[in-house]
Design a protein that fits this description.
Number of helices: 1
Order of helices and strands: HEEEEEEEEEEEE
Number of domains: 1
Strand content: over 45%
Structural class: mainly beta
Helix content: 10-25%
Shape: elongated
Amino acid sequence: MTDIRESEPRPGLVSRRAIARTAAWSVPAVAVVAAAPPASASVNSTTLAVTGLETSFLTLNLVDGGGTLTASALVTVPTEVTITNGPGLVSQAVTVTVTVGRPSGINVSVGRARGFGVYSFNGVQSTSGQRTTTYQSAPIVGQYGFPLTTFTTTLPVAVPSNGSLALPLVLGLAGVSTGLSIGATASYPVTIVVDFGNGLTRTAASTVAVPVGAGIL
C-alpha cells in the first residue's frame, strides 16, 4: 500500500491560504487610505467672497447697548459671505473672524463716534464674549475717534461638492457717540476670515459706507 502524505511547504514559499488571508485583511486598509485624499483636496479648492450688499435707509441695531437707529441717508453694508467648493464634500467646523476697521481719512482727536460690529452671523445673534470694541486712547483726552471691532465664532459647515454655502451677516452700530459732527463719507473696511484648520484660511473683504448726514455715527 502506498502512503499518501500532505506535502509540507518548502522553506521560502507562502501557502495559498496565507496569501488569501493576507489579501482579505489588506482590502479594507487600502479603502480607508484611498478615501482620505478627496476631503483634503476639496478644502484646498474652496474660495470665499462677499456675495450680498444692501444700500438703503437702514435701521441698525446698537450692538453694545440695545435699541436701534435709522439712517437719514443711504448706507451700504455687506449682508452675506459665501464659501464656494470644488470637487468633494467639505463637512467640518470652521472658525470665522469678522474685523471692521476704522475709516481712513477722518481725523478725530477728541470725542468718540460709532463704528460697526457683528450683530448676528448665520442667523445667530452675537454675544459680548464673541466681540471686542477698541478705541484709540491718549493721556488726558482718554478714548477717542472710531472703534476697531472684531467678532469670532466657531460653527459647523457642510458645503456640497462643486456647490456653495451662503452665510448671512448682519452688522450693527458698535461703540458710543459723543455727538461728533462727521463731515465726510466714512468708509469702514470689513475683513472676513474663515479658518479651516491646519493653517488653511480663506479671506474676503468689503466696505461699510456711511455718507455725510446719515445721523447714525
